[in-house]
Amino acid sequence: MRSLVIPLLALGMLGLEGSARAEEFALDAEQRERLAAGEVIVQPLEPTDGVGVATRGIALVPAPPERVWRVVRDCGEQAQFMPRVKESAQLERDDGSSVCRTVMDVPFPFPDLFVELLSVEQTLPDGGFRRHWTLLNGDFERNQGAWTVLPWGEDAQQALLVYESDAKPKTIVPDFILRAAQRETLPGGMRAMRLRVEERP
């Protein structure tokens, strides 16, 4: 497995390496009602140096965190169900880390984007899980973020699924178009993850 030193330092600067709780996402009563109704909450974030696109998506999944985690940690299957993921493969796996390769379908006339990411997995102290990633190679100047799965509800038999991404692809497409596209496509990706959990044995 490739060296984790530089990626883990980068995650430390992002604040993605620690534990997580639902409270840190500052969901108000209205947003909690929307989540309970099956909606996806999309929150724009500030990208690194103000360049590129950074976004958070939040959804409720009606399944225990352990079931959701089995889907989240398997990056090699994403082409089977995630919108705009043309190819996906898990190139390497070691104890708690993996290398994932993804090819994303980009609308004409722009070329598809490929990326290789180093993912590091965590079991969180409150019964949740996190897979955070940093860029190894690909058509991006920056690509970092995390999937977080947190227990939800009094009996913890639901999961709060949180996606966070901070990326800058190597493209001539202006940032405002990239940000609009992310806001439009992210809810579909979150719903696809939820449906995959429901369908997977």
Task: Provide structural commentary.
The chain is an alpha+beta fold and 201 residues long. The protein has a single domain (5-199), classed as START domain (Alpha-D-Glucose-1,6-Bisphosphate, Chain A, domain 4, 2-Layer Sandwich), CATH 3.30.530.20. It is built from 4 helices and 8 strands; from the N terminus they run H-H-E-E-H-E-E-E-E-E-E-H. An 8-stranded antiparallel beta sheet has the order 1-2-8-7-6-5-4-3, sandwiched between helices. A hairpin with a 7-residue loop joins strand 1 (41-45) and strand 2 (53-61). Helix 3 crosses helix 4 (175-199). The protein is globular, with a radius of gyration of 16 Å. The model is unreliable at 1-19 (pLDDT under 50).
**CATH level-1 class:** Alpha Beta
Number of helices: 4
Sheet having the most strands: 8 strands, antiparallel
CATH topology: Alpha-D-Glucose-1,6-Bisphosphate, Chain A, domain 4
Number of strands: 8
Kindly state the mean pLDDT as a whole number? Answer: 86
Strand composition percent: 35-45%
Question: Percentage of helical residues?
Answer: 25-40%
Outline type: globular
Strand ordering within the main sheet: 1-2-8-7-6-5-4-3
